[in-house]
Design goal:
5 helices, four-stranded parallel sheet, 166 residues, 4 strands
Length: 166
């Protein structure tokens, strides 16, 4: 497990629209990441609008994310969930499906989608990655989202023509 957090981007006065789609399953761990995302975005981009959409589980994240990307004009989307492996392959199948769907959405919508749907082996691993101040994947997700919003703002200035997906 990498403990190297992405660098903290510079603060910005951007009024970006950042959407969060977070599952309710394994709620204590997801809520810990959600709190960390909101706190970090508020510090880095205090004028950003952050809207959270809750879904029952990780498998429902992609369909909600697709709806949000189609209808809200989000500048970035952060997907949060925790899948704890059990005795079957169900968790791995859900994790792979969510990962594939989120990547396809990011490319199709030309919008950053930050994937923080964790697939872990135990509750101890989930706690390590979501509830610690030193290592919180929610903080990392927020930094990636802000970094990508800032990058896309620069790209739109550099390439001001309308961007349409291929």
């Amino acid at each position: 497990m990498s403990e190297a957090a992405p660098p903290r981007p510079r603060s910005s006065s951007s009024r970006a629209n950042i959407a969060i789609v977070a599952s309710l399953y394994n709620e204590p761990y997801v809520n810990a990441m959600l709190d960390a995302v909101r706190t970090e975005i508020q510090e880095l981009m205090p004028d950003a609008q952050v809207v959270t959409y809750r879904v029952p589980g990780a498998f429902e994240i992609p369909v909600c994310a697709e709806f949000v990307l189609r209808n809200t004009g989000a500048d970035a989307l952060v997907a949060l969930g925790v899948i704890i492996r059990g005795e079957t392959e169900h968790g791995d199948l859900v994790g792979a499906s969510v990962t594939d769907a989120l990547m396809r959405m990011a490319v199709a919508h030309v919008t950053p989608v930050v994937h923080e749907v964790l697939l872990v082996d135990s509750e101890e691993q989930a706690e390590e990655r979501t509830m610690r101040e030193r290592l919180n994947r929610g903080t990392e997700a927020a930094r990636v989202a802000v970094n990508m919003v800032q990058l896309f703002e620069k790209l739109r200035v550099t390439f001001p023509f309308p961007q349409t997906p291929a």
